[in-house]
Structures are given as structure tokens and as C-alpha cells.
Amino acid sequence: MAGRVIFLNGTSSAGKTTLARAIQDESATPYVYWGIDTLFTLVPPNWGGGRDGPLSRDGFWYDRGADTVVIRYGRVGRRMLRSACVAAAAFARGGDDLVIDEMLLAPELMADWQSALAGLDVLMVRVTCPLEVAERREVGRRNPRGLARGHFRTVHEHGVAYDLTIDTAAGTPAELAREVTRAAHHPRIGGGP
Questions:
Q1: Which pLDDT tens digit goes with each residue over 52-107?
Q2: Widest CA span of the chain, in angstroms?
Q3: Backbone angles phi, psi at 90, to 5 degrees
Q4: CB of 24 within 8 A of CB of 33?
Q5: Which pTM value belongs to this model?
Q6: How far apart are CA 21 and CA 35, in angstroms?
């Protein structure tokens, strides 16, 4: 039997990782964690945003504006993003419950997740907080400043309905995690992304 999937999507510093870890702590069943940062730790530095060299244009790079940073991807990065979706979904297909910590870099990437998660029991969670809160959280993190603002509007423009919206500024991680896990254990119409 396939596992349940909790799909958390929100901008950088919205509180997704904290919420995902709290879900792991609060749930009576073990949830395997998969995050976009999981993929980024696997990408060779020359192909990632860290070194910003010529290979990163095929992989991932930071597109810096006056007060925004947007993560962009090239041909190799796109392939890696698709592979990450399939790899994450394999946990649920193997019977493990899965919590996905995602920041969709572009709306069209939701189609890759839909394909990878097709037929699974997926709770779609919009993770949000006021932009000022995300920007405050961004200070002191290793991510570049402006990343929360850079993806704030586009991260939810994919056209797929959410089952639940969580404002991480509206409760403690434990309280919010209990709300999400309660919702994940109730049957939903459609049962997928």
C-alpha cells in the first residue's frame, strides 16, 4: 500500500522546513522528508547557484534584481528537477508517508509533481506568511536576501487547488503540524495533486 504525501509549497523563508520537521515530530507515523534543498545539496557546485559560473546556466543560478533574487534553471537543472520529483515519489510508492518541502521555481514545474505523484493520496498545502515575516526570517539564513520576495508571488501561480492553507505566522510549528497531519489522515475528494 502506498504512503500518504503532504506537499508543502511556499516561498523561501515561509516556514516550510520548520513545518515539515514539526510534522515529523508530531505525527504518530514516520514521515520521510524530501525538500528542494535536498536536491540542491546533490547538485555539483559548478552546476548550482553557489559558484555562478558558465555551467550554472545549464544547471541553476541566481537571477539578482534590485531587491529580489529568483532561482533560475537551464536544461540540466530542469532534468534534475524532474528526477527529484520521481525520486521523492518513490518513497510513497514504496509505502512510506512523505512530506515534501517545495518552493516551485516556476509554475510549470507543478506538472512534473503531478505526474510523479499521480494516483497517490496527496494533501496539497499552501504555506504562506506575510512577506515582512519571510524577509525577517531570511536575515541570518544562508540563502541570499531577496529570495523570499523573488518567489513570493509566483510560487502559488500554478493553477492547482490547495486542500489547506497554513500561515506559519499564525501558530506554533507544533500546532500547525497537528492541523496538517489531521487533514492528511482524512479522505479527500480526488486524493491527488
A1: 778 888 999 899 999 999 999 999 999 999 999 999 999 999 999 999 999 999 99
A2: 49
A3: -60, -35
A4: yes
A5: 0.93
A6: 11
